[in-house]
Amino acid sequence: MSGLLITFEGGEGAGKTTQISGLADHLRVRGFDVIVTREPGGSAGAEAVRHVILSGAAEAYGPAMEALLFAAARSDHVDQKIRPAIEAGQIVLCDRFIDSSRVYQGISGNLDPQFMQAVERIAIDGTMPDLTFILDIPADKGLARAGLRRGNEAADRFEKETIATHEARRQAFLGIAAEEPQRCKVIDADRSVAEISAEISALTDNLLNSREGYAHG
Ligand code: Z5A
After folding, report:
1. Does 32 contact ligand 1 (Cβ within 6 A)?
2. Is the whole-model pTM more than 0.85?
3. Contact 200/22 with Cβ under 8 angstroms?
4. Which domains does the chain possess?
C-alpha cells in the first residue's frame, strides 16, 4: 500500500511545527508509520542548500536564483526521502513544500508563472501532496509568535520583511486554497493549539477513512 504526503503551509509563526508534532502523535497512536520532515531541508543535500538560502547569501542574486535553489533542495528531498517513504507506505508530514515556493518566490518575487510551473514540475517529478493544511493567521500575530520563540536570535532572510509583505503572502496562500479546494484545507490558526489540532486530526482521519486499506492504521 502506498503512503501519503501531507504538507503544512502558512506564514511565519502560524504554528506549523507545533501542529505537525500533534498530528504525528495522533497518527502514531492510530498505528500509522509516520515521518516528519521540513523544507528547505529534510535530506543531506537540501540541508546544505538551506543554510545558503536562509542566511540571505543568495538574496542579492534575485528571486529566480532563490527559486532555483529551493527547487534544487526540493528535488533532492523528494528523491532521497519523500518518495521512498511514500513507496514504503509511510505517512510523510512535511513543514512547507511547493506552496511556499509559489507564494514566497512566485508571487512575492513576481516571477513568471510559466517559469515557476516548470521549476516545480522538475523539482517534484509528480510527487504532489495528498492533503495540504494552510494555517491562516493575521501576519502581525504570526510574527509576534515567531519573535517570542526566536528570543534574542536575529530574524532570518524572510522574517525581517515588512508586515505588508507578510499579509500579501497570507492572501496568496488563501488564493491557492481557493483554486485547489480538494487538496488545500484552510485552518484558522488564531485559536488554541488544542482546537487547531482537533480540526487537523479530524480532517486527516476523514482522508484516511476514505482511502481503501487505511481505515485501521
Ligand atoms: N521558504 C521559501 O521562501 N520558499 C520555499 O519554497 C520554502 C520556504 C520551502 C523557512 O523558514 C523560510 O523559508 C520561510 C519561508 C521560506 N520563511 N521564513 N521565515 P523556517 O523553516 O526557519 O521557518 P518557518 O517555516 O517560517 O517556521 P515558523 O513560521 O517560524 O514557525 P511555525 O512552524 O509556523 O510555528 P511554530 O514553531 O509551531 O510556532 C511558533 C511559536 O508559536 C512557538 O513558540 C509555539 O509554541 C507558538 N505557538 C504555536 N501554536 C500556537 C497557538 N495556537 N497559540 C499560541 N502560540 C502558539
Report:
1. no
2. yes
3. yes
4. 4-210 (3.40.50.300)
* Whether the CB of 41 sits within 6 Å of ligand 1: no
Chain length of the chain: 217
Question: Which one, of 144, 140, 132, 60, lies nearest residue 103 by Cα?
Answer: 132
**Among all chains, which residue has been given the C-alpha cell 502560524?**
14
For residue 40, is the peptide bond before it cis, meaning its omega torsion is within 30 degrees of 0?
yes
Strand pairing class (131-136; 4-10): parallel
- As given in the structure block, the three cell numbers for residue 93 are 508530514
C-alpha 154 – ligand 1 centre gap (Å): 15
- Tens of pLDDT, residues 163-208: 899 999 999 999 999 999 999 999 999 999 999 999 999 999 999 9
Is 148 near ligand 1, meaning CB less than 6 Å away? yes
